[in-house]
Amino acid sequence: MSSNNRYLFTSESVSMGHPDKVADQISDAILDHCLAADPMSRVACETMVTTELAICSGEITTNADLSRSTIDKIVRDTIKAIGYTDHTIGFAADTCQVLSHLHKQSGNIAQGVDLGGAGDQGMMFGFACKETSTLMPLPIYLAHRLVENHAKMRESGELKFLRPDAKSQVTVEYEPDGTPNRIHTVVFSTQHDESVMTKKGNMEYFSDEARNILKDKLILPTLKKEWPQLMKGDFEIIIPGTPAKKFDDDRILTHINPTGCFLVGGPHGDCGLTGRKIIVDTYGGRGRHGGGAFSGKDPTKVDRSAAYMCRYIAKNIVAADLADECEVQLSYAIGYPDPLNIWVNSNNTTKNGVTDDQLVELIRKHFKLTPKGIIETLNLRRPIYKETARNGHFGRELPTFTWEKTDKAEVLRKEAGKPALAGV
What we know:
Layout: E1 7-14, H1 19-37, E2 42-50, E3 53-61, H2 68-82, E4 97-103, H3 107-113, E5 122-129, H4 138-156, E6 162-174, E7 180-192, E8 197-200, E9 203-206, H5 208-226, E10 234-237, E11 251-256, H6 266-269, E12 272-273, H7 278-281, H8 302-319, E13 325-332, E14 341-345, H9 356-366, H10 371-378, H11 409-416, H12 419-422
Parallel strand pairs: 3-4, 7-11, 10-11
Antiparallel strand pairs: 1-6, 2-3, 2-12, 5-13, 6-7, 8-9, 13-14
Helix pairs in contact: 1-2, 4-5, 8-10
């Protein structure tokens, strides 16, 4: 807890080259391949990546070509697009081994889904708030922009020493009423090549010069562009091995490659698995998570599609100015079409006398919540998913991210203003 009853909240993101995100992108690339050939494909694809190895397994029922040569090409093309092309770092598109173990979906699951039921049981959450223009929480939004811009600078060659694996973390200081006051701490770790190594004693470290380059060319420009008024104080780089700094309102503490070196990274440094970055994928811990991963799953799996619908609902409620913050939960039983519950929590930020219970009634009236209705509303049977598997599933207003639209805001605003709903 900081001074004046202010508090700190932290979120992290990981780059497209992080091993878990490599696995997510491969799984979603296979999903996109299936949906492009057969929009009714049923896909549950899991991927594991490690040193010079990628393994794909799972249950897929589709008319798409799933031959070993086809899967091999999808995997290698995805790895190459991410940027792993140098075999000397332990993982590369042209040299890694690719194993495929895919089989058909269980008939026991299919018999319920075929009738329009949910592809699994579970609960899903969506969240929106007014902290950013995209109605995302500020810490996760900034963390995503840092790794997104890291990839752009690596791919353009502007910072030649960068390699694909990276992590960001942003801590924001909030006022007691929940409004952001300032950026408090930034952590950024990036895999790098040997050109930015320096020797200290008998050990080699990431150079302080490279730290300053990352601060000046990546971190400062990214944060200033997104919310310059929260940049209160100078950035102070904490050098690895130095004592921890105490809280200071006049500084933004910055840790860049805090272990001292990040030469070994990617799947060679850590095994990557599909679905292991679910908080990165959603709201950075600010909103709840039902526990189900997204990547590699077709839209009959409500783990994914209903989570997208929850975000769509929450975002439209906030965009309609019915609440400053909104969290939505839906839950389902496998094989059963209608949600078992609809829950809304506005954290006491609703407007004009509207209650959370009344928001639930608006949701029932204006949103189709069966798996079929969700798929139709958000147009989810398209090959749009590989892009979701990096830089977050929410908060980017891309044409294919239909769950980010606010096309229901006006009707919700008008309906909430009617006397019967407003309680007048």
